[in-house]
Amino acid sequence: MSQIQLSNLETIPGTKITKHLGLVQGNTVRAKHLGRDILSGLKNIVGGELHAYTELLTESRQQSTSRMMDEARALGANAIICVRYSTSSVSPGASELYAYGTAVVVEPL
Amino acid sequence: MTALGVFAVLLVIGFVFGRINEAAHFVDLNRREARLSHMVLSSSKQVPSGAMDTSFVSGNVVVSIDYYKRILAALKSIVGGEIGSYQTLLTRARREAVLRMAEQAHSNGANYVACVRLETASVFQNEQGVGSLEVYAYGTALKTDN
């Protein structure tokens, strides 16, 4: 599996864009589960970081990123530029993580 | 009567632990930020010339407000105005997320993070409207000569 370079800049420094392949995207909707919820109920009293949710969202974001990368790979790209993320609450207890960017072919300068 | 007792206990627990947690977090943030003071963070798309070794870096954190501050904020929202309790929570969360991103950049051998973007979202809200806040920071880590 070829490596896809990611960047949220408009270029990838040290390379030249030779081809634009258009928008690629990936998303995932995740719900929290009960076990994590009980612990977070406690955290809602004392405040502070909810490590379980931080991990859950990191994993989910990785999944939406890898879906975006799969799409880029299918188009024959080797990099994605202008990567942006967006998070939204779609229903009580569930969140959507969305990643999008522009698939390009880059060559070393 | 019991309900009032539970409410009072939660309020005290929230106040004490919330305060301790917050103070400890700020100390930890200051220490870690000082260690990474050489890292340049920029929200600009411009990249210094001669930059190389690009890598995508990110950091996130999910935080929740304590019971005492939540009640305080609820009371404050009756009269309006600035809600200080949420403001410190968001400050902590943002600094933490940015720091995690910078730490990832550091472990990638970078000394510059360009195009830093921050995103704040309310996540996993339950039926009572009590939810958590997520802050996500991301950017492009680079290595520059100077």
Fold topology:
The complex is a heterodimer of chains A (109) and B (146).
Chain A: E1 5-6, E2 15-31, H1 34-46, E3 48-49, H2 51-74, E4 79-91, E5 94-108
Chain B: H1 2-35, E1 40-41, E2 52-64, H2 67-79, H3 84-107, E3 112-123, E4 132-143
Parallel strand pairs in B: 1-3
Antiparallel strand pairs in B: 2-4, 3-4
Helix pairs in contact in B: 1-2, 1-3
Provide the descriptors you would attach to this structure in a database record.
heterodimer; A: 109 residues; alpha+beta; Translation Initiation Factor IF3; 5 strands; B: 146 residues; 4-stranded mixed sheet; 3 helices
Polypeptide structure, described:
The complex is a heterodimer of chains A (109) and B (146). In chain A, strands 1-4-5-2 form a 4-stranded mixed beta sheet. Chain A has 2 helices and 5 strands, in the order ββαβαββ. The two termini of chain A are 23 Å apart. Chain A has one domain: 2-Layer Sandwich (Translation Initiation Factor IF3), CATH 3.30.110. With 109 residues, chain A is α+β, with helices and mostly antiparallel strands. In chain B, helix 1 runs parallel beside helix 3. Chain B has 146 residues and is α+β, with helices and mostly antiparallel strands. Chain B has a 4-stranded mixed beta sheet with strand order 1-3-4-2. In chain B, strand 3 and strand 4 form a beta hairpin. Chains A and B meet through strand 1, helix 1, strand 3, helix 2 and strand 4 of A and helix 1, strand 2, helix 2, strand 3 and strand 4 of B. Strand 3 of chain A pairs antiparallel with strand 2 of chain B.
